[in-house]
Write a structure and sequence with these properties.
Elements: H1 8-14, E1 34-38, E2 41-44, E3 49-52, H2 55-58, H3 68-80, H4 92-101, E4 109-115, H5 118-135, E5 143-147, H6 156-161, E6 178-181, H7 199-214, E7 219-224, H8 241-250, E8 254-258, E9 282-285, E10 297-302, H9 303-310, H10 328-343, H11 346-362, E11 370-376, E12 379-384, H12 395-407, E13 410-411, E14 413-415, E15 418-421, H13 429-446
Parallel strand pairs: 3-13, 5-6, 5-7, 7-8, 8-9
Antiparallel strand pairs: 1-2, 2-3, 4-10, 9-10, 11-12, 12-15, 14-15
Helix pairs in contact: 3-10, 4-10, 7-8, 11-13, 12-13
Bound molecules: pyridoxal-5'-phosphate.
Length: 447
Amino acid sequence: MIEALLDHATLVEHDRRHLHPLHHPAQLVNPLVVERAEGVWIYTTDGRRVLDGMAGLWNVNIGYGNQELPEVAAAQMRKLAFTSNFAGMTTPPAAELAYRMAGMAHPSLNTTFFTSGGSEANDSAFKTVRYYWHRQGQPEKFKIISRQAGYHGITVAATAATGIPRYHPMFGPLAAGFSHIPAPNPYRYTGDLQPGETVGQAAARALEEEILRQGPETVAAFIVEPIQGVGGVIVPPDDYFPRVRALCDRYAVLLIVDEVICGFGRTGLWFGEHHWHLRPDILTFAKGITSGYLPLGGMQISDAIRETIDSAQPQEIWMHGFTYSGHAAACAVGLKNLEILERENLLANSQQMGERLKTGLHKLLEFPIIGEVRGRGLLCGVEIVKDKESREADIPKALAIYNACLARGLRLRNVGATLACSPPLVINAEEVDQIVDILGSVIDSVC
Ligand SMILES: Cc1ncc(COP(=O)(O)O)c(C=O)c1O
């Protein structure tokens, strides 16, 4: 085992030179300095043992401490750590992983482009849909519609696509060409709901109205997460996505499905879109493809989009790619990770443990501050409200519950007023019950 070189206090002091994501210094007063981890448990340099109910950042799907992935990574690095995938070059792991993933999400998604993460994947998708319309002779079709409470990453374009307002101040002006419509949130729909209309119908109508308002001849794509994660674990009603797909077809708008959280078993199926059969034109992924053991993401494109890239003249080349596109060690880890997900039946475990988790969390609905419990597989959310009648979101209380859980050895994540729970897919029944018990006792003490 690799020993930490410095004691906890020194590490905390040195970490002050480290600019963290979404940085606020208050969060670094007593940070978890995580030194090692096993299964669903993380261990810190000051002796804390915490059940990681967030699988890192929704991504350590096969759990911590797996020994096969480091071996595969080391073997690949010894042979070939890196070479470029530009200019007619490739590597065996990149070729094999692209081949393995062909048709996995949908029969028409047979081509994969690799990135290092989800934001790069979504930026690649935005550029590719614009490229596609340029190649169709419709360069004016460049706008991207996304949804409120949608999270698509942190690069300049992905920030503009993200529909969570707190990500926007201080970074303006945002990239042009992005607009947001209401999320299909059955508990808290913010759009216009007409008498007799379901939330799914209203949210789909909002898409049609936005396409018409912008002008269909200017709209390139609509981007969706199957289940909106960072925006509050929002599960759409079943009548929403069939309407979305039909509208995209009617107005020739490409559908980008962001599977960065939902992919690779998180919701109990290989991809979140398999719950609703979205037929993506582009599917973006990251996180669970390597269970976080190495950084990897990417996009899969439809055969029709691939055709436009293949048939380009030299001056129309798809001029896009990253140094680390198709990184050999990351792709080797991705391949082995897919094998482990399959071999260990982790999708089935995600379904079974997800049901157990949801059943346990549903019992919390007896507390007056629990507005809703929702989710699919091991992607769950518990929404904290001031009271059940008003449904007013209680963000400070959600933060207090998050902190109290952490003090008792359970790590969740407060996304707005919702406590998200997204543990490794290797979690067992006893550990699921521990999550429910700790959260229940914390909520009991808060109430
Ligand atoms: C749905 C979704 N898309 C994109 C991203 C961005 O991925 P990354 O942080 O790897 O750039 C995230 C990150 O949480 C995400 O949840």
